[in-house]
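Subject: Sanity check before I submit

Could someone independently write out the structure tokens for this chain? I want to compare against mine line by line before I put it in a report. The sequence has 349 residues.
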Amino acid sequence: MEGRISTFGRLPGDASFGGGAAHPVRDAGVREFAAAPLVGLVRNPRSHRNKGRDAALAGRQDVLLAEPTTRAELEAALAHFAEAGIDILAVSGGDGTVRDVLTHGAPLFADRWPAIAVLPQGKTNALALDIGVTDRTTLDHVMVAARQGRLLTRRPIIVSDHKGEARDRWGFIFGAGVFNAAIDAGQVAHRFGAFQSFAIGVTALAGMTQALFGFGRSPWRKRYRMVFTDAITGESLPHSDEARPDRRYIAGFTTLRRFPLGMKLLAGVEDDRTIGYFMIDAPSRRALALVPAAATGWHGPSLAGLGMHRGDGQAFDVALENGFILDGERFPAGQFRMATGPELRFVVP
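---
Independent answer below. Compare away.
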């Protein structure tokens, strides 16, 4: 969210919140939604489907609207929402917009998070897919669902810098290794008009082809220095003899359980309150040839021996030489702790 300064303010109407006295900040825990719950809407004007104004928002008294284009504007908007005591925090954008809203909202909402509604308008919306929200979901659908109590919980991943030099980052999909090449390929797919599951399919096909048949310095065949340790037990995560103990090909961690194209990368990971992981130690052709079967949920006894690992945990210590991807954005190398965050309530229309 870089660039020009945008306008932030109340939608046209009474300057008091909800047409009367300001809503007080409510106690944490389960809320009874009012007949017209107060919504704080962060609408990313740069998201794929958010071009131009939304006429359906004009004149609403139950919505506080923000269309920030910088992180400073986002923080100011969220502070305003927290002070107003919103009932629902709605996010219109993609996974990156949700990541930024959670990251910058965490110090403001602390343990008093409102219910969260995702309006998937970005190029990728993995969280929306996981909780069953489509790009046809509107704010009115959200209001009805909230009043009917249709909510479910998800825990984000919180990534903390060991040195304390950066703020904690909140997201749902953490990737390292060849994930960097995959993000680059995904951006190319977007430029050619491929989005959502189709873009993921194009990227996966291109990556598999490069990994299986590429030679030399192809980024799709490189192994990266990365070390993962279970922060609770102190034990290193499983590793095979396919690569040096401090090298892996790809590592993905997530608290989500449903994936595009029906993939079942975390088949066998039963606890949906943990961070699940799927890792490949080295791009051997034997291992990569089994990736399609593993992605459909196949559990073969030879997988671990070939350097393919599944598992889960509550927290992991991480050391990376090449940075990581969190919900589609690159972050620099370093040492981090990755841990499950608090249960957040999501409205499901």
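---
OP: Matches mine. For the report I'm noting this point. DSSP finds eight helices and 19 strands in the chain.
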